[in-house]
């Protein structure tokens, strides 16, 4: 026992020393990535708790307050909501801390970029404390976070537009025929992928012999949107580029697939019901990857660029308007649902029942 205690103490000391070494090595520039790393850790913790913490939560009396124990899915949702709430509060605190900071020489800016060991401890404590909150408060946060998840879908489109605009500008600036051809190939490739994938969507979610008006409408509307993006971009008065339109069209097709694959497994128009587990895990993984990339890109761009979401002619151009923690606050609600499709499908199902 004595030897085991010494070994555990040595391991803990080494782990603390390693964390302190990593924390001390975080500079002003890498602090943006560190904030994104905390967000990535939250995603991983949410995923693990969603899949494995259900039996443990069922034994906690202030969470399992029911006469009849709820389904495992309910406890999985509670675990994700509590991690999401803790993450949201943590980043809100640092976003509020940065209000009014306009110069990196201010003291509060030093708090924002330094003290990473303390921040990691505070983050862990905040997440843990969320599991002591009553169910009513967590469920209220879950209801509000649905709107946050919907807002994030729009934010992702803006992020994609900013990314593809910079991508297009970088290749055009080379002013060589090879890069113009590459732009055309990538743009056409995005549209071909969108059209081909839409064909698969018609095959999977509008099976023959079934009346699937909602699915047909959603897929057709997505195709019309993709074509409209190209028409608007190529209009002489807009003088845009086909690349952003193609990327957004492909992304909208992915959202359409994510929404339709979230249909109930016993729904006759869901042709993937036999592979629902594999589909849900694949969609979850892709959704988490998309979310993480969006967070990293937006935090780095907003924390360093003077033109992110602000044209050069704007009075705010040339000023750093957002800190990485402020950006991540707007993205924390994305952990509430396993994929963007769940939110979209719930809205489409409500629209179908009230319109069609």
TrEMBL record:
Please give the GO cellular component terms listed in this UniProt entry.
membrane
Question: Which region is the signal sequence?
Answer: 1-17
Going by the UniProt record, its keywords in alphabetical order are: Membrane, Signal, Transmembrane, Transmembrane helix
User: Pfam families given for it?
Assistant: Serinc
The similarity comment for this entry is: Belongs to the TDE1 family.
Entry's transmembrane regions:
29-49, 79-100, 120-138, 150-167, 179-202, 214-235, 241-260, 281-300
State the organism named in the record: Ceratodon purpureus
**Bilayer disposition of the protein:** Multi-pass membrane protein
Question: According to the lineage, what is the superkingdom?
Answer: Eukaryota
Name of this chain's protein: Serine incorporator
Query: Which PANTHER family is this protein grouped with?
Result: SERINE INCORPORATOR (PTHR10383), SERINE INCORPORATOR, ISOFORM F (PTHR10383:SF9)
Q: Does the keyword Membrane apply?
A: yes
Q: What is its main location?
A: membrane
Compartments, record wording: Membrane
For whether the record's keyword set contains Glycoprotein, the answer is no
